Amino acid sequence: MKKFINKIDDFLSESLSGFGKAHHEIINVNLNPDYIYRKNKPKTSKVSLISGGGSGHEPLHGGFVGYGMLDAACPGQVFSAPTPDQMQAAAEEVYNQKGILFIVKNYSGDIMNFEMSADMIDFEHSTVIVNDDVAVEDSTFTSGRRGVAGTVIVEKTIGSLAEECASLDECKKFGDHVNKMTASMGVAFTSCTVPTAGKPTFDIEADEMEFGVGIHGEPGRKREKFRNANEITTDLIGAILEDLKPSNNQGVLLFINGFGGTPLMELYLLYNSAKNILDKKNIRIERSLVGNFTTSLDMAGASFTITKLDAEIKRHWDSPVYTAALRSGT
Amino acid sequence: MKKFINKIDDFLSESLSGFGKAHHEIINVNLNPDYIYRKNKPKTSKVSLISGGGSGHEPLHGGFVGYGMLDAACPGQVFSAPTPDQMQAAAEEVYNQKGILFIVKNYSGDIMNFEMSADMIDFEHSTVIVNDDVAVEDSTFTSGRRGVAGTVIVEKTIGSLAEECASLDECKKFGDHVNKMTASMGVAFTSCTVPTAGKPTFDIEADEMEFGVGIHGEPGRKREKFRNANEITTDLIGAILEDLKPSNNQGVLLFINGFGGTPLMELYLLYNSAKNILDKKNIRIERSLVGNFTTSLDMAGASFTITKLDAEIKRHWDSPVYTAALRSGT
């Protein structure tokens, strides 16, 4: 295993330290317990958004802490849920009079630990669970559908609503709504390698792909022979649309997400394939995002996420954001 | 070779088409000849900045076309220089009364083709050559030092100066200055795979690294045994500082660049290592950039870039920018 590492035990803390120093104008990093939080606490009271999950999916979630998005993120060890004391400490740090909203990807460990932290805090709180992955019901670490790249859309849009000083109940309802309007599915060409394991999570042949892979390398719908980009895109988009059932002329956000090991050139080629397919189905791409936003360490592969847009989601997608990994601007 | 591709011959054009559609609010893409240019031509006359080079380094250069940075970018085939007709057509598209400034990474093919295009245009023009890679003098495709990730700093800062309606001569001089203040060096753990070749550009053992690698996989200073992140960082930063000879208490921009296959977690860990080393040498990091900005397709590895800052460079680094890949914002 060749990775930029000193000691495996220090991998996360050294990486978080670097993140904190590189972006000190936007965020602070607390170590022990580990959490990343906004440098400038909002002046007016607002719902505080806290997300988190296993590390290894960067820039998710720490890269999305900042104005217009998250108030704090709690990174667990690589592909391991954060512990309840992290979320408790983060909540105490960022609480701002209007309650805490946890945004949690649907994995059993994450759900359990966020629930435990919720029991430990005295503030009014609620939770939005993201489960956008249409690949499989129930998986290695999950009951029900997995939460994957659609989390970025959920965090961005609730972040915007919270910035407008909406109530905890409004933020929770809107988050559930955006999650329901969002569906994702991905494919892997190679496995990622978790540092503590020191070897690839799964074996895969040179002519195979894992269709519907999870962001921790969990099995998808099937192991398939490698095919060309248009064919892969047709099947992934097909599975997503079967779930979303968009109406004719539906406006959508199309998000092509790289898993970490796939060049941008290929992600843009996938965008082109997806656009051609959506055009033919009379589905209008109104907003786009392309890049490595919900990664699986060094895994080669990509996922597609589609969100059905309405006026509110569009407005909150378009609103200003200033984080390490996502910025608006004109 | 598993890549998201339909036909190898269409790889670049399909990727460019996707890029154009995904970012249609910022840029237009012209195919045949291929060039990317700003959607909104500046209202006041300004020097037009045109860069380009082989594809496979995305987001360089197309991702940096937009307000505050480039006016146009000319992508060649993967790792191949763009042809003169591309730069000629781009120059005719974006010429804006104050002349054309070409920004060219120092590779023999690029230099030759940009020179040929300069001969073909009637506009006043000049060229800034970027040669920030301190690893080797002369290389597979280069006489003198190679141009690598420092190009991002050069393009950002000249872009800002040009936006202030500086003259062609001022932009050229400032670009040369920033290039001189900038030095880079990288290391690769794995090779990239060029689609037309269908196999890795070079072989490398599981316990080896290419120290001083070029962004096309060219040989560096030496093939070494793999070492830990602090040791690698010490040597790369050492080589860069030997070239830059910063004064005591020098303020710098530190840029950690991923080659495409290395997770963000590792890049931030490298930032942490570099910060510790620079602190001890009494060199102050005043600005930072971390991410995949000058890639080598799917190569695992990273490069360090340091720019010695003065008031002018700092001001032009901080000024607003709005491109697909780099955005300021507050």
Biggest sheet layout of chain A: 6 strands, mixed
CATH superfamily of the largest domain in chain A: Dihydroxyacetone kinase, domain 1
- CATH architecture label name of the largest domain in chain A: 3-Layer(aba) Sandwich
Helix percentage range of chain A: 25-40%
User: Count the strands of chain A?
Assistant: 14
Number of domains of chain A: 2
CATH fold type of the largest domain in chain A: Rossmann fold
- N-to-C series of helices and strands of chain A: HEEEEEHEHEHHEEEHEHEEHE
* Tally of helical runs of chain A: 8
Question: Which two chains touch over the largest interface?
Answer: A-B, 65 and 65 residues
Radius of gyration of chain A: 19 Å
CATH class of the largest domain in chain A: Alpha Beta
Cα(first) to Cα(last) distance of chain A is: 42 Å
Assembly annotation: homodimer
Q: Which consecutive residue ranges of chain A, at least 5 long each, have pLDDT under 50?
A: none
